[in-house]
User: Which sequence fits this backbone?
């Protein structure tokens, strides 16, 4: 595969619904997919604790995920946590680049709550959004109450160790390097907004929630997503939390992004993306 001048043959696409909860290995879900001729095939879907050396606790899940990514060369991973913070916060920290921010992350913030508090203070006591959050209609600021742990542990526990050891390329902030895994930020909600499916509430145990999960899969099937295994499709629909489905949406977003002729660069590139990160939809 040749992507925008970059030679690349991804063996697999992984859509990851990431969690920063104490039981992250149970709440993190991973979908494995392949892209052939514009058709995305979901091959498997499983919780984070199912990967080698994984566990249900956060402190087990994070290093296992890092190892999993680093050993899956030429694969592409779509994660649903913010890869950065608003430019105003970076400037107030004295950060001149996204890379510097990731490398120095643990020096800036002591824990998730310190991260949330300091970011809000540095942004003028408000929940600021990045340019890409506004462009792609993400529902929250990176340090919002609902996702601040996700952002904190995603940056500290996933991006930082991979970047420190040069074991992955985080795009579009870094150039693609052959034979290294690629990571890109996605947001299931933003993808559903773009695909005009956002109004369908699918996280819950009611019959209506299950029906909406099934309907979303059906509508994605109309957009060249296939799940050949009936048992896998039933399992994704049965997951009341919607985490399995979110990982499928993440994989779909990665596949869709790869087919964009401008990939890995977004149309209408803005300097802020290189500092704050970019959400692929």
Assistant:
């Amino acid at each position: 595969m040749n992507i925008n001048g970059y030679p690349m043959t991804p063996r697999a696409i992984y859509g990851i619904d990431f969690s920063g909860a104490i039981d992250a290995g149970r709440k993190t879900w991973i979908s494995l997919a392949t892209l052939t001729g514009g058709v995305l095939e979901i091959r498997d879907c499983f919780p984070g604790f199912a990967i080698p050396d994984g566990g249900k606790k956060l402190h087990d899940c994070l290093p296992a995920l890092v190892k999993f990514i680093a050993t899956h060369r030429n694969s592409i991973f779509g994660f649903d946590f913010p890869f950065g913070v608003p430019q105003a916060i970076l400037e107030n920290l004295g950060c001149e680049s996204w890379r510097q921010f990731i490398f120095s992350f643990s020096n800036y913030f002591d824990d998730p709550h310190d991260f949330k508090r300091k970011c809000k203070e540095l942004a003028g006591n408000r929940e600021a959004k990045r340019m890409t959050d506004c462009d792609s209609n993400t529902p929250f600021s990176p340090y919002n109450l609902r996702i601040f742990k996700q952002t904190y542990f995603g940056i500290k526990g996933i991006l930082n160790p991979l970047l420190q050891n040069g074991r992955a390329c985080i795009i579009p902030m870094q150039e693609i390097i052959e034979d290294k895994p690629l990571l890109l930020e996605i947001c299931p909600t933003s993808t559903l907004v773009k695909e005009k499916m956002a109004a369908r509430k699918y996280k819950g145990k009611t019959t209506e929630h299950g029906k909406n999960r099934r309907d979303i899969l059906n509508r994605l099937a109309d957009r060249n997503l296939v799940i050949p295994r009936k048992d896998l499709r039933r399992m994704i629909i049965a997951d009341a939390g919607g985490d399995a489905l979110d990982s499928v949406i993440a994989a779909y977003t990665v596949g869709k992004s790869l087919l964009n002729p401008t990939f890995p660069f977004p149309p209408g590139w803005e300097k802020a993306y290189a500092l704050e990160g970019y959400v692929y939809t």
Q: What stands out?
A: The domain at 2-280 is CATH 3.30.420 (Nucleotidyltransferase; domain 5). Residues 12 and 75 are 5 Å apart (CA to CA). The beta strands are 2-3, 6-7, 13-17, 29-36, 39-47, 76-79, 169-170, 182-186, 225-226, 279-280.
